[in-house]
Structure formats: C-alpha cells, structure tokens
C-alpha cells in the first residue's frame, strides 16, 4: 500500500513539474520578444538572472510549483503589461529598479480585538480599578484618608513605572503610528489619571493640601503628562492638555490670584506649544489656543482694575504663538513659500481677539489700549517676516475697527435710538474711559502702520493673495478709523478738520495708485492698485460728507461711482468696473432706507428741493458712469450702473410729482387723479426716451427698462385712470371746460401712447405696437366722451341724468372722431389710423342700435340714424373711389389673320 501511494505521489509530481516547465518556456519566449523590442528601441535588455533562478527553483522543487500556481499565473498576467510599456522604459538605479512595496493587508476583526481593543479596555480598567479600590476602602472603613491617599499615589507611581518599563522593554522611544495599541502609553495614561485624581482627592475631599499646593501638584501632573507624550504619543498629549486647563477649575479660592493663574497658563501653553512644535501636532496647537482663549472670558468679569494680569495672559500667549506656532518665524515649523497658513494666522488672531475683549470690558482703559496697540504692531511685524501669518493682518484691521467703532458708539448713544428697545444698556461714556488723546494717537499709529506697511508690501511676494491682503488692510483701516473718530468727536455734524484729513488721505491713496501703476507687473498688483484707487475715491466721498450736511453722503457715493468709472477708462483695471457697480448698489440701498434722502428737511418748494439733488445728481452720475463703462465693454457692472441710472431717473420724476401734488408729503397714503395722470404721462415719456436710446446702444437694460415702464404705464392707466380715479365713477372735480384735468389725465396719455406706438413700430413685434396704439385709442375716445359729459354736467361728471341730447352728442362726437381718424389715415396713408377709424365707427354703430334706439326719442333718434347712415355711405364711397379704386383692364390685342 505504501508503495502505491509513493507511485501516485511521483506521478502527480511529474505532471506538476511538466506543467511548470511548459509555463517557464512560455514565459521565456515572451521575455525574448520583449528583449528584441527593447534592443530595437535602443534600450538595455532586462537581466535574466531572476528568470534563471525561477527555473532552477521550479526544477529543483516541483512540489513548490504545485503549491503556488498563482505565482506563475501572476507572471503571465504581468507579461502583456510589460510588453505594452516597453516603449517608455523607466530609468533604473544601479542597474535594477526597486519593486514597489506590497500593500499591507487590513487587520481582521480578531486582530483588532486582540491588538487594540483589549489593550484600551485594559488601561481603562486599571484606572477604574484604582478608583473603585479607593471607593471600597471608604465604604468599608478599612483605611483612613491618609492611607487612602498614599495608596492612590503608590498605585499611580506603579502604573507610571510599568509604562516606563514596558516602553524600555519594547524599545519604542520614538513612537510611530502603529497598527496596534500602544501598551506603554496606555499604562502611563492610566497612571497620570490616578495621580491627578489622588491629588484632587487630597485637596477637595480630605483637605490635606492647601489650594496653592494642590494647584502646583495638579499642574505638575499635567505638565508631566505632556512631557511623557513625547515618548508615548498624541493620546497622552490630549489627556495632558485637558488636565492642565481643567486644573484651575478644580482648585477654587475665595480670593483668586490672577497673576498666579495666568503664569501657570503661560507655562502650560509654552509646554503644549513646544510639544506641538517638536512632534508637529497641529491639533495640539489649535486645542491649546482655544483653551487659552476660553480662559480669557470668565476672568473679564472682574472689571477694569484687573487689566494687568489679563494683558499678561494675552501677551504671553501671543509671544509663544509667534515663536513656536507661526511657520517660518523664529522657532516655528518650516513654511511653504508665500502661502498663508491658517493655524499661523489664526493663533495670532485669537490672542488679538483676547486683547480686544480686554479693551471693551475695561471700558477702553489706557493700559488696555496700549497693550492692544502693541499686539497689533507685533502682528504687522510677524506677518512682514513670515507670510504664513498674513491673514492675521486682515483680522487685526477688523479688530481695530471694532475697538474704535465701539468707542464711538459708547460716546454717542443717540446712534442706537433706532434699535428695537432703544439704546443698549450700559452704553454711554464712563469715568474710566481712555482719553480722547490716547485714542487719537493710537488711531494715527494704526493708520500709518497699516497704510505704510500695505504700500511697502507690494511686490515682495510671488503670491497674489498676500499683497492683496496687505493693500486691503492699508485701505480699510485708515478709512474706518477716520469714520469712527468723526462719529465720536464731531457727533456726525459738519467738520472741516475731518474733511481736510479725508482730502489728505485721498491724496495719499492717489499717489500710491500712481506709483504702483508705473511698476512692473507682479502677482496681485492690479487688484492692489484698484484697492488704493478705491480708497482715494472713498476718502473724497468722506470729505464731502464731513464738509457738507444732510444727504450729501448719497450724492458723494454716486459721484464716487462716476469717478471710479472714469478711472477705469484711464486705468483699465477690471476690479474698478465692479467697484463702480458696488457703489451704485450702495446708493440704491441708501434710498431704500430713507427715500426722502434728508428726512423731513426736504422742504415744500416744488421741483427745487432736496429730492432734485438727492436723486438728480446720482441719476446724472450713473448715466455718465454708464457712458464711460460702455466705452470698454458691455458686461454685468455696466448693466448694474445702467439699471441704477434708470431707477434714479424714474424715482426722481415720481418723487417730484408726488412731492408737488401732495404739498411736500411724499408718504401720503392716497393718490388723486392729478398725481396718477402725471405719473402715467411721465412714464410714457420716459419709455419713449428709452426706446430711442436702446436703438443706439443695443443695451438689454434699456430694452427691458422700456418694456417695464410701458407695462407700468398701462397698469396705472387701466387701474388708476379707468377705475380708481375715474371721474365718471367718483365725485372728482375736473375743473373748467376743455382746459381741465381731463386734458391731462386722458388726452395727454393718449398722445404719448400714440407716439410710443410709432417709436416701437417696425422695431418690436407688431402685436406690441398695436397694443400700445389700442391703448392710445381708448384713452382718446375716453377723453372725448368725458369732455362732452363735462359740458352737460359741469366739473363733477358723476352727478346728473343723461339726457337725449347728451346721448345724441356722444354719437355725433364718436362719428366725427372716427371720420377724422379716417381722414388722417387717408392723408398719411396710415393703415393703423384707418383701422382705428373702423373700430370707432363700429362702436358708434353698436351704440346706435343698442342705446340710441332704446333711449332716444323723436328727432334725436332720427337724426342719429340719418347722420350715421350718411357717414357710412360716404365712407364706402371714399374706400371705393380713393383707397381701392379699380384700374380699367387693358384691351385684349386683336387676333392675327390666319391664326
């Protein structure tokens, strides 16, 4: 039996070996083909040593080949890929390419449990075991408080010693991210947790330790945990930083020592930043900054008298962040060239925010202002040296504005009277406020520092973002400070000194713009030039606002938009076009807040009042600005400015009409026939103007504007003139005969609508022009009818009974009106006028058969039908003899003989 099994095994081995040799031969043939192709392409042939080794191994151990058939299959699969890539040979090092590492298999469920979860649960269990042992000893009364504390400390030391022993045993001093749980780190974490709990129990439960001693011991445990994290990894660092910042909450005192607290926090922050720098743990730096900033809030409740320790806290944190966190500065991590790094900028901005809170909470104490100014200056210096912190410059500019804006509002509570509920509680000057002199000096330093640094920073970076941030801060900060100081010192009244300062600032920005324009192109330079140009225009607008009164700010902003459009023509910077549109949008929002521009000071003088300046000058500015912008392109900014120009023109007309008709009250709840008539006439006139203008410009804004105005005029005429303010329906006094309100309300719109129909004829759809012409016909016929009623009933048309003579007059007037239209159509060869005539005469016929036949009696009925008949016959004759006269047909030629 044994021999039989041996024979079977030998046969199987022979078959497997034969198959392996065949596969090897196939592989060699393919490799020979690859070598030949490589030689033809001029490349070195691949070495054959590995293949020979494979052959020898297969020949010597056929059983191995039988056990691993997939290896040969993989080689066969890889061969075609090698043939496909032989045209692009890779450069080899030392004659042979390094094979890529094989992917590591993912750990299975069992491996996860055995290498990770069990260890983590074990560490937690050890810590809980220590706690439960202490609890049991308390409940059973086995040990006294002193012994319990000593045992807890010994257990903590034992865990720490075990963690250190296992670390040295496993030789993992430089911890790498391991796929298994770190047993030494877990033991050390459990030991530090037990030590922390032991110290706290000795202080809080048994009163063995004084607050100062407990505070020091807890801090030592936390710092020791951070130090151990150098060896045991990030988990222990997280535990240490949490314990370090929670320690001050655990140790309470009736008389807290803020100097000791902030000195401790400075030490903790330094340790955490140092650890984060050594191990490059960004999360640890962010967590430390967040905890340090949080510790600023509860301590601010102590009032202005504690500015000193609070200032030390933010200064120490700022210095440590600048030294250890900011990339590319002093001891910070290496920085990418000319790139803004969020944590570098955010760390400085966080401590600047803390300094801002101290200033606001201390009611702008002198010391707080000085500390804030020092940190802002330090931010500029750090960002100048390290581009990674450039975003902190923008944050500093914003916080400077917050400080001075709050100071301005605090000194002017009246600025908040429009808030719901009135001014905020606590708003108003305080005895501890910093002097105006300190704020003026600080503002001058800030304005000069940001402005000069922002100008000098242009061209220093290969990045486009960094110079733009500097220039934006350079433009925004001085303007914002000027506004805040003006509001606080001049209380928003006229101030020639501030106007002079604004003019000087505008000149400085203008000079910077010209200097930068002459420089060679650098990344971000066009946007920076646009920002400085914007600052110049903004300063000029402020100068007008400071020097003039009331609504001149609206006018100044509109003129600023015009100036920006003109500058964009002289200096083709794309951003300037967008800026002109933005300024136009701001002016639109401004009038939305108060349409009267200057409130009750508009006055009652018709036309020549503040509405003329407040709407007229912006309208002219936007029309001129759109002219300048159109000379270069028809784009979105141009359309915004054109829309603003149309809007202000329409609003000027509407507001002036409403102001004049209502005696200066533009907020009157109702409108009369006079106002509606004027609005309709003005709207139609503006629509005609836009129709003419759009032919020249081809602007979509002018096109849409003309359509909207026409639609508005139609709605106002239909709803207002025909229904809501119809003198036939309501008792409205229309005035004397012929020269009265009817002439304005119906004849005027009829003529304007007729002119509009001819303006759009052939340039819009025929239905559009015919609709406008039909509206003109309706208004004209209404005017004729109402004038006749005015002759019979006096100025109030809604009173009295309609007599037969009046009905007959209507018929005759309509008939005459239709004949006149027909005559105009024949004289000017206008088909539209003849069709209108047909409509009017058709209405007259309907009136004759539906109304005159039933209401007229006697001679009026006869005369009505006789006149109508004569006119209809005459019209037929005109059409036959003049309009559609048939020409005599030419005589047929005589037939030729013999044809």
UniProtKB/TrEMBL annotation:
Keyword terms: Membrane, Transmembrane, Transmembrane helix
Keyword Hydrolase assigned: no
Ranges annotated as biased composition (Low complexity): 83-97
Listed transmembrane segments: 117-134, 146-163, 183-203, 215-246, 258-275, 280-298, 310-331, 343-361, 367-384, 391-409, 436-456, 468-489, 495-512, 524-546, 552-569, 576-593, 608-629, 636-655, 667-688, 700-724, 736-761, 768-788, 808-828, 835-853, 859-879
Location of the region described as Disordered in the Swiss-Prot/TrEMBL record: 83-108
Protein name according to UniProt: DUF2339 domain-containing protein
Species this chain originates from: Bradyrhizobium sediminis
Keyword Transmembrane helix on entry: yes
Superkingdom assignment: Bacteria
InterPro entries: DUF2339_TM, UCP035905_mem
């Amino acid at each position: 039996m044994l021999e039989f099994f041996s024979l079977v095994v030998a046969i199987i081995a022979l078959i497997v070996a034969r198959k392996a040799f065949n596969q090897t031969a196939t592989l060699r043939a393919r490799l020979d083909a690859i070598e030949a192709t490589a030689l033809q392409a001029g490349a070195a042939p691949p070495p054959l040593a590995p293949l020979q080794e494979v052959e020898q191994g297969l020949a010597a151990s056929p059983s191995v080949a039988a056990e691993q058939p997939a290896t040969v299959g993989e080689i066969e699969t890889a061969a075609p890929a090698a043939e496909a890539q032989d045209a692009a040979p890779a450069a080899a090092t030392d004659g042979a390419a390094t094979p890529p590492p094989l992917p590591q298999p993912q750990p299975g469920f069992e491996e996860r449990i055995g290498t990770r979860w069990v260890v983590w649960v074990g560490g937690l269990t050890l810590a809980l075991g220590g706690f439960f042992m202490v609890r049991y000893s308390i409940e059973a009364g086995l040990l006294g408080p002193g012994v319990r504390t000593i045992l807890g400390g010994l257990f903590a030391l034992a865990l720490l010693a075990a963690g250190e022993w296992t670390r040295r045993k496993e030789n993992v001093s430089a911890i790498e991210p391991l796929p298994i749980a770190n047993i030494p780190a877990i033991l050390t974490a459990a030991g530090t947790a037990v030590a922390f709990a032991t110290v706290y129990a000795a202080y809080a439960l048994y009163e063995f330790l004084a607050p100062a001693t407990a505070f020091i011991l807890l801090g030592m445990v936390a710092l020791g945990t951070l130090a151990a994290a150098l060896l045991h990894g990030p988990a222990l660092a997280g535990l240490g930083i949490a314990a370090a910042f929670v320690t001050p909450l655990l140790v309470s005192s009736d008389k807290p020592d803020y100097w000791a607290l902030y000195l401790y926090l400075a030490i903790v922050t330094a340790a955490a930043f140092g650890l984060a720098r050594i191990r490059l743990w960004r999360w640890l730096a962010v967590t430390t900054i967040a905890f340090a900033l949080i510790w600023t809030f509860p301590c601010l409740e102590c009032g202005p008298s504690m500015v000193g320790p609070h200032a030390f806290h933010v200064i120490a944190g700022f210095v440590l962040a600048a030294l250890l966190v900011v990339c590319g500065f002093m001891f910070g991590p290496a920085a990418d060239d000319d790139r803004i790094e969020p944590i570098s900028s955010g760390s400085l901005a966080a401590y600047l925010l803390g300094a801002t809170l101290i200033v606001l909470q201390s009611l702008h104490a002198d010391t707080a202002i000085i500390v804030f100014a020092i940190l802002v200056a330090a931010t500029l210096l750090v960002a100048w040296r390290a581009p990674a912190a450039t975003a902190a410059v923008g944050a500093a500019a914003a916080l400077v504005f917050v400080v001075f804006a709050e100071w301005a509002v605090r000194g002017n509570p009246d600025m908040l009277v429009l808030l719901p509920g009135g001014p905020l509680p606590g708003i108003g000057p305080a005895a501890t406020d910093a002097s105006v002199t300190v704020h003026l000096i600080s503002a001058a330093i800030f304005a000069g520092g940001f402005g000069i640094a922002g100008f000098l920073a242009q061209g220093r970076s290969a990045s486009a973002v960094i110079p733009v941030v500097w220039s934006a801060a350079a433009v925004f900060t001085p303007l914002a400070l000027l506004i805040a100081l003006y509001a606080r010192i001049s209380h928003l009244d006229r101030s020639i000194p501030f106007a002079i300062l604004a003019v000087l600032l505008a000149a400085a920005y203008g000079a910077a713009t010209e200097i930068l324009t002459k420089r060679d192109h650098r990344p971000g330079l066009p946007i920076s030039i646009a920002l400085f140009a914007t600052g110049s225009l903004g300063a000029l607008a402020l100068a007008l606002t400071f020097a003039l009164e009331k609504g001149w700010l609206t006018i100044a902003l509109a003129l600023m938009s015009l100036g920006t459009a003109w500058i964009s023509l002289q200096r083709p910077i794309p951003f300037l076009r967008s800026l002109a549109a933005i300024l136009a949008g701001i002016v639109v929002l401004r009038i939305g807040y108060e349409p009267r521009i200057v409130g009750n000071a508009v006055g009652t003088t018709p036309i020549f009042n503040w509405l003329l300046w407040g709407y007229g000058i912006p309208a002219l500015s936007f029309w001129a600005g759109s002219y300048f912008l159109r000379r270069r392109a028809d784009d979105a900014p141009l359309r915004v400015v054109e829309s603003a120009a149309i809007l202000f023109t329409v609003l000027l007309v509407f507001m002036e009409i409403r102001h004049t008709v209502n005696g200066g009250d533009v907020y009157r709840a109702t409108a009369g026939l006079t106002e509606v008539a004027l609005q309709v006439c003005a709207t139609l006139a503006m629509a005609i103007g836009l129709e003419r203008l759009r032919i020249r410009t081809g602007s979509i804004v002018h096109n849409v504007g003309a359509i909207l105005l026409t639609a508005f005029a139609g709605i106002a005429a239909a709803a207002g003139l025909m229904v809501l303010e119809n003198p036939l329906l309501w008792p409205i006094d229309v005035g004397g005969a012929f020269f009265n309100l009817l002439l304005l309300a119906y004849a005027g719109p009829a003529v304007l609508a007729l002119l509009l129909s001819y303006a759009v004829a052939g340039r819009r759809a025929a239905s559009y022009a015919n609709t406008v012409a039909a509206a003109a016909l309706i208004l004209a016929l209404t005017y004729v009818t109402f004038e006749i009623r005015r002759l019979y009933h006096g100025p109030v048309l809604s009173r009295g009974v309609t007599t037969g003579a009046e009905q007959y007059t209507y018929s005759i007037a309509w008939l005459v009106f239709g004949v006149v239209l027909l005559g105009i159509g024949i004289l000017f060869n206008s088909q539209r006028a003849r069709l209108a005539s047909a409509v009017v005469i058709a209405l007259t016929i309907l009136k004759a058969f539906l109304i005159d036949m039933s209401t007229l009696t006697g001679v009026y009925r006869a005369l009505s039908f006789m006149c109508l008949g004569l006119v209809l016959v005459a019209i037929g004759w005109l059409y036959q003899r003049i309009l559609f006269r048939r020409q005599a047909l030419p005589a047929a030629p005589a037939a030729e003989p013999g044809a």
